[in-house]
Amino acid sequence: MVQTLERLAKPATAAHPAAKAVPPYSWSKALEAEMAPLYARVQHVVTPMEWPHYAPLIKSINELKQQRNAVILAHNYMTPEIFHCVADFRGDSLQLAKEAARVDAKIIVQAGVHFMAETSKLLSPDKTVLIPDMRAGCSLASSITPEDVRMLREAYPGVPIVTYVNTSAAVKAECDITCTSSNAVKVVESLGAPRVLCIPDQYLAKWVQSQTKVEVITWKGACEVHERFTGEELQTMREAEPGLKIIAHPECPPDVIAAADFTGSTSGMIQWVKDKRPPKVMLVTECSMASNVAIEVPDVEFIRPCNLCPHMKRISLENIYDSLVNLRHEVTVDPDVAHRARRAVERMVNLTN
Ligand code: 13P
Ligand code: SF4
């Protein structure tokens, strides 16, 4: 029997934080049989040792979602047991933002990082948006503040400011429009200006600059996962693995992008692998994505450089379950900030619809 939600959902206080929820199911022969079809889907990337731990949590989460009228939006970097076993919608930042705007549920659990949960709240203000761990941040989001943006406005009067969605709502509120890695060039060109500020990712901006005649000015932010890759490393992999195709995320430094066969957003990369079906491929991005795609293209061999995002990896089945039971941690945005930030996000969404 599922535990009663009322008992588990007593509001927590700072002095008495709600206890970590314990799932009502445990591993048994019956559960093993019931969950066998789901395990068959992920068995290439989830070991038989791990499954008895995950399966009770997965069953509990999927039941709770229905009782709570909740959906889970999962980014492509979530681990496979989250991505394939409990997520209702999966995708890159843009796809998740669009889904948040149209989803029909009372609660959104963001299996991703904090800026993604804020974006969901901006586009779905009447819904309760939860993030399983408030500490799931992003090195790009923490590289710039609203004061920095105001300083840029003064330094570059009249130059439109495009902010990557990987920023706080307070930073978005100071900008003209947002972009994601899948639409950055289109957004920059849509403004019809000769010069555009594209913040805060210096590498995404450099990549955009290589694709457009618009002059792109940037900031000094970087993704702590993608900036670690080097062109030299890619060259070594090519020599070691003849026939290897290498595809990279635009948050990578220019020498990495120059050494890659394709550059695109996380979903762009997934689509490229599905369309091209290379015998061997290396995804120059966060590590979990290769496991998630591998399930869908078993004929492709993945060569894995394993750079993990410590923020994305804060999200687990345990804290997703806890989040649904205790309705924590709720993500809210100050109404004035939300009003201005929403304008910037909606402008992007309307452009790409
Ligand atoms: P995508 O929009 O390509 O999914 O990128 C989000 C992100 O955080 C990549 O590091
Ligand atoms: Fe931020 Fe990089 Fe992690 Fe994406 S992978 S959330 S850009 S730190």
TrEMBL record:
Co-factor binding comment: Binds 1 [4Fe-4S] cluster per subunit.
Q: Using the record, list the residue span of the signal peptide; answer none if the entry has no such feature.
A: none
Catalytic activity reported: iminosuccinate + dihydroxyacetone phosphate = quinolinate + phosphate + 2 H2O + H(+)
Q: What EC number(s) does its UniProt record assign?
A: 2.5.1.72
Q: Please give one Pfam family short name.
A: NadA
Q: Which class of enzymes does this protein belong to?
A: transferase
Annotated membrane-spanning segments are none
Top-level taxon of the source organism: Bacteria
Q: What is this protein called?
A: Quinolinate synthase
Q: Native species of this protein?
A: Hyphomicrobium denitrificans (strain ATCC 51888 / DSM 1869 / NCIMB 11706 / TK 0415)
